[in-house]
Each structure stands twice: as structure tokens, then as C-alpha cells.
Specification:
The chain is α+β, with helices and mostly antiparallel strands. Among the domains are: about 50-195 and about 270-280, Immunoglobulin-like, CATH 2.60.40; about 200-215 and about 225-245, no CATH class. About 25% of the residues lie in helices and about 30% in strands. It has seven helices and twelve strands. It has helices spanning about 195, 200-215, 225-245, 260-270, 290, 295-315, 320-325, and strands at about 55-60, 75-80, 85-95, 105-110, 115, 120, 130-135, 140-145, 150-155, 160-170, 175-185, 270-280. Strands 2, 4, 5, 6, 9, 11 and 12 form a seven-stranded mixed β-sheet that branches. The protein is globular, with a radius of gyration of 24 Å.
Length: about 325
């Protein structure tokens, strides 16, 4: 696949945005014209993701709109005290289209825990969260939570999609240097990973099986050897049922494992390195911004409902506005 030129080297003129700076608005890169024409069928599992999408990072103070132009990818370096939150944005823009029906393609976004040299962690889903930036009326506004640790995102032709990464450092977190990765991999549109195919009922069933194993084994100090053997056999049968569940079917020893190994990930995927330095002091808890200005929680909710109602009325979605008022 040939790609003439490097779009990441395009110089973007500094256009002031309507939300207070940045180049998110007022700059149009021609939409679909920058996409490389699709030549034949492309299997994203056999092509490096760098050939299919642009990936770059932006600070949390920048408005990243759908027409944001690509930049060079650099590691993320953050500084935070304990009891502080730091955020950063990861922008993804398709270079070509490897899927039809108005969608350029699909990417899987996977994140790992942030670990220090001493073994301390900032755990995904607790201290590290991912949310998708959803533009409303062309303005980046809503932050929609993504599934963790793996989420699937559809990319639109000629548009930039942004993922908002937040890191919450607990007040008891040991200071030090923490490192982790956010891995972006181009995938087939019908790719299904365990988090999607495993229902809540299946998860509860698995939970009960594992809990049953613990109850079966239990304390064995005052048990006879024969009873201990029977308990181990029963627990072994329960664990075997767990391993044969659909969640672990891709790891079955009865056939080839259809799983991208570490070598394949490093060769095909894009790794965004995150380096976080946690300082050795605790940031004191301060009042929220509405509280500082004397706005009560009820007033804040009423103000949000008012603005949302105006948006729904403008967009013609009166049903959604009514549902929101009913919920509140």
C-alpha cells in the first residue's frame, strides 16, 4: 500500500475556536478528499495500524473537533499529586477506508494498568478511565464512558475521533514513576471480544461457580484425608466447567488459538506510552466550582435541564427532553 507524502507533517494554521482557542473549528481539511482510495479488500489484521489510521495526543485544554488535523505521535508525560486528576486526549483519524456503509473502519482501544518499578499500580477502571468525546452541534461536549479494558470504536470517513483519558491518583497512592500503554488496533467491523459477547447473566453464573469452588474446599484442618480428596475433586470439576465456558473458548487446547500474541500486537498495533510522575504530597480537597460560586446542587440540576431542553427543542427531540425531566 503506497501513501504519497505524510499527512502528519501538514502545518495547521492557528484558527481561533469559538470555545476559546485551538484549531478545532474554522479549519476544514476537505473531508473525504484526504482519504486514500480503497484498492481491493484490506484485512486490518494483516496490515499495520499505522497504515490505516493517524493517532496523536492533545492536551486536555484543547478543543479537538471532527476536522482536527493529524500531528506527530509523542509519548504522554503527566505530572500529578496524590488526590489529583490529570487528563489527556488521544485523537484517531482514518487514513483510508477498510469498511463500507458510511464507516471508514473499526479500531479496538485497549489500556493497561499504570505500574511503577516498585510494583504499585493505578488500575484500569478505577484510577484510569476512558471516555469518547461526542460533538453536539459540532462542538466537542459529551464524554461517553467506554468499556474497559477493551473498547470498540467506529471511525467516520474524514473525521477525527477523540478519546478522553482520565487518571485519578488516590490520596494514598505511593509516589513514583508510573508507566503504561494504550494500544490501538485496527479491526474488522464484526470483531467481537469477550466483553461484548459475555452477558451479565453469564458473568453471574461464572461468579457463582468460582464462589462454589471456595465454599467446597473451605477449611480442611479438621477434615479426613478422604473428605479432602473428595472436596478437591468437586472443586476441580467446577473449575473445569469455568474453563469450558464461552469466555475462555478462544484459549482452548483443542484447536489453534485465534488470539493476537504480544509479537503481533507490537508489530501491527499503535502503542501510546503513558508516563505519569506522582509527587510525594497530597492535594487538599477543595469545594467544587459551583459551590465556590454559591450554586446549590438543585440549582445546578435545574440549569442543566434548562440548557438540555433548549438543545432538544432546537434539534426537534422533544421526546428525549420529556424523558430527561421524568428521570430527574
Amino acid at each position: 500500500m503506497e501513501n504519497s507524502g505524510n499527512p502528519q507533517e501538514i502545518l495547521v494554521p492557528p484558527v481561533e475556536g469559538v470555545a476559546g482557542g485551538g484549531t478545532a473549528y474554522g479549519w476544514n481539511d476537505g473531508g473525504l478528499h484526504n482519504l486514500i482510495p480503497l484498492k481491493g479488500s484490506i484485512d486490518p489484521t494483516e496490515v499495520p495500524t499505522t497504515d490505516l489510521v493517524h493517532v496523536w495526543c492533545m492536551p486536555n485544554t484543547t478543543n479537538v473537533g471532527p476536522q482536527e488535523m493529524p500531528r506527530n505521535l509523542e509519548p504522554i508525560n503527566l505530572l500529578a499529586a496524590r488526590n489529583e486528576r490529570e487528563s489527556v486526549q488521544i485523537a484517531i483519524r482514518p487514513k483510508i477506508s477498510w469498511f463500507g456503509s458510511g464507516v471508514a473502519g473499526t479500531v479496538l482501544v485497549q489500556c493497561s494498568d499504570l505500574c511503577s518499578a516498585s510494583g504499585d499500580r493505578l488500575v484500569v477502571g478505577q484510577s484510569l478511565t476512558l471516555r469518547r468525546v461526542v460533538p453536539i452541534l459540532g462542538i466537542p461536549d459529551a464524554l461517553v464512558p467506554l468499556d474497559l479494558p477493551v473498547s470498540q470504536i467506529n471511525l467516520l470517513p474524514g473525521e477525527t475521533t477523540t478519546v478522553w483519558v482520565s487518571i485519578d491518583v488516590p490520596s494514598t497512592q505511593p509516589p513514583g514513576q508510573y508507566e503504561g500503554d494504550i494500544i490501538i488496533t485496527a479491526a474488522k467491523p464484526d470483531t467481537e471480544y469477550p466483553a461484548q459477547s459475555f452477558s451479565k447473566a453469564d458473568k453471574y453464573k461464572l461468579y457463582r461457580e468460582l464462589q462454589s469452588c471456595l465454599e467446597i474446599i473451605g477449611p480442611v484442618d479438621d477434615r479426613s484425608s478422604g473428605e479432602v480428596v473428595e472436596r478437591v475433586k468437586s472443586a476441580s470439576a467446577s473449575l473445569r466447567r469455568v474453563l469450558l465456558s464461552p469466555l475462555f473458548s478462544e484459549f482452548s487446547d483443542n484447536g489453534p488459538v485465534d488470539l493476537m500474541d504480544e509479537d503481533a500486537i507490537s508489530n501491527l498495533s499503535i502503542r501510546v506510552k503513558i508516563n505519569l510522575t506522582v509527587w510525594d504530597f497530597v492535594l487538599p480537597t477543595t469545594p467544587s466550582l459551583p459551590a465556590v460560586f454559591g450554586v446549590s446542587l438543585n440549582e445546578e440540576i435545574e440549569l442543566s435541564i434548562y440548557h438540555w431542553s433548549i438543545y432538544c427543542e432546537f434539534s426537534g427531540d422533544t421526546v428525549l427532553s420529556t424523558e430527561l425531566l421524568t428521570i430527574i
